[in-house]
Amino acid sequence: MSAPDSGTAVSRPTGPAAPTAPTSAIETPRGSLLVALRGLMPYLWPADRMDLRARVLWGLALLVLAKVATLATPFIFKWATDAVASGEGAAISTDTIALLLAGPLVLTLGYGLARIVMAGLTQWRDGLFAKVAMHAVRRLALETFRHMHALSLRFHLERKTGGLTRVLERSREGIETIVRMLVLHLAPTILEFGMVIVVLFWQFDWRYVLATVGMIGGYTLFTFLMTEYRMSIRRAMNESDTDANTKAVDSLLNYETVKYFGAEKWEAARYDRSMARYERASIHTHTSLAWLNAGQAVIFTLGLTAVMALCVMDIRAGRQSVGSFVMVNAMMIQLYQPLNFLGMIYREIKQSLIDIEAMFAILARPPEIKDKPAAPVLQVAGGAVRFEDVRFSYDPDREILKGVSFEVPAGRTVAIVGPSGAGKSTISRLLFRFYDVASGRITIDGQDIRDVSQESLRAAIGMVPQDTVLFNDTLGYNIRYGRHDATEAEVEEAARLAQIDGFIRQTPKGFATEVGERGLKLSGGEKQRVAIARTILKAPPILLLDEATSALDSHTEHEIQDALDRVSEGRTTLVIAHRLSTVISADEIIVLAQGRIAERGTHGELMARQGLYHSMWERQREADRARETLRATGEGSVATGKSATDTSADAAPAPAGPAKERLAEEEESDAAA
After folding, report:
1. Residue 360 CB-density burial (10 A; 0-12 exposed, 13-18 middle, 19+ buried)
2. Nearest 10 degrees: CA dihedral of 51, 57, 60, 65?
3. Stated pTM of the model
């Protein structure tokens, strides 16, 4: 038999409260059974769930009763055999207990009943403990998921989504396997081993014990050595599996790009190379498993033969009956199942520990951004935002912000502009506290954002990003994401204010319309309106617009800008923009250059200064004029989406090179921004 191989005060509701997970004790990135046991104990013996503790205690009682019934069956088998043998003229057993029983038929019925009781108690125990095991799996999975969200943006930017989801999937399965193996198999196996040794010494003598212990020791040692050898194979197989899954997810997420460049064969070849490595490792895994099972069978058979040979010699010497021969055979065969489980338990636990190595590393990684102990809720009066001598760098060798100071007064609008790489988007990430400043501080109504809870900080800020990524769900769900407890009327009103209600009414399913992966079924303008709608629904006192219209065409940009202007009314608004035409009405415009504030003032003041802002404005105006010129010519057919054959025969020739060069330069700047 071979074992299987498996591998005001700003605070708002955030949905139903999830169960609180205890602090994990898992603290190492390398598989360790002792560490796993220490980490699992708070989940298997939860302090806040007395009902689960009662299930554990009752399960242990059933475990002992089941093993007593298990060891009773060989005794009844022996007595029945001796009774049958005595009826055929064999030597009569002198066993006192056998003489008290009615005869072979009753003993045979007792044997069947004992096996039924053994199976029933075992299944009862497994069913009783299932709730404890799955509760532990759920709590650990929840803690891992929460920890993933607690880690900084830096961590998530360094990870590949496909590989990360695969790690989480295997980790959840690994946790379930460890819980099941430790409680449902390892503990019963150890108990049965001890009881078998006691019975052998009581009913037979030390030679039987020595042979059995030697067999168990050899079996365990062989299993340990082979499993350790197979671990490197399993690790290589997992790495290949993760690599293949990462390539598959990445390729499917970029489906359109693959089609643009006709790269289907290239993507298939990349995926197949990863699967080929997985195939080789998987074949090696199954081959080594066959050797492991064969070796285990040989070792057990040698031990079984030795014990039975001792019994044969004792029967000939008159020290044992024929029933003893049957008993020892039944006991050893019965021992093979838990012994075989011991090999499987060790393999499964070791393999599961490898599967959750990545999860161990994630849990051991402390969050970069943490709330202070008992951090208070952000108290928003007007929502004034202030940056005071802020310095920050992603890499210590390259400083991004170099002493930036400015203020966004409550209810006013301040715009931040500047060339690509000046640090504009970094300001939005620092305000949301995705990172902490290296020096200086950021305050909202005089409160340092590092001193308040992250939840209350982010509840106070509404974000409309340049690239809106939507959940693969319905329009209604994505709008309601701004505030999960919003009513249907509030969702519809937010859609109306964002001017997307007309589009929703035109769709057959209305708010139940699916938006597709990352919202790809919607146009850029429609996605931006959804982002505006959910920000309206959130109703934050502070609004952050990060290049919210730079990826849109001019017509859509004007429509979205109108909607943004309405949302911004009465709110403290920080606008990060590349297109200067969208910020001319701001109360103050700050021009960043190389991480420092180069200029600041209103649009009129900056234009009169004839500085960097004026230069940027003139370049964008020239680029706009170049676009208009190209649209009026044959080359403009490409820019407007027309084919070359649609251009009239008497169209004017293309303009001279400078206009085209200015357009190319501006488009390159847009892409970089």
Report:
1. buried
2. -100
3. 0.59
Cα of first residue to Cα of last residue in the chain, in angstroms, is: 64
DSSP tally for the chain: helices H, then strands E: 23, 10
Q: In whole angstroms, what is the distance from residue 631 CA to residue 355 CA?
A: 58
Beta strands in 419-493 (DSSP E): 439-444, 447-448, 461-464
Of 205, 295, 231, nearest in space to 3 by CA: 295
Q: Which pLDDT score, from 0 to 100, does residue 161 have? A: 56
Give residue 89's pLDDT: 40
| Cα–Cα dist 464/577, whole Å | 12
Residue 525: C-alpha distances to residues 531, 544, 545, 563 (Å): 10, 18, 15, 11
pLDDT interval class at 667 (50, 70, 90) = very low
pLDDT at 97 over 60: no
Which one, of 427, 463, 437, 445, lies nearest residue 376 by Cα?
A: 445
What tokens does 12 get? 């708002």
φ and ψ of 24, to 5 deg: -75, 145
Contact criterion met (CB below 8 Å) for 1 and 304: no
Helix (H, G, I), strand (E, B) or coil at 518: strand
Does position 17 have pLDDT exceeding 50, yes or no? no
pLDDT level of residue 86 (50, 70, 90 thresholds)? low
Return mean pLDDT, the chain.
Answer: 76
Please report which confidence band the pLDDT of residue 107 belongs to, taking 50, 70 and 90 as the band edges: low
Tokens describing residue 13: 């509701």
CA distance 59 to 125: 5
For 108, the enclosing helix (H) or strand (E) is helix 104-150
pLDDT score for 62: 79
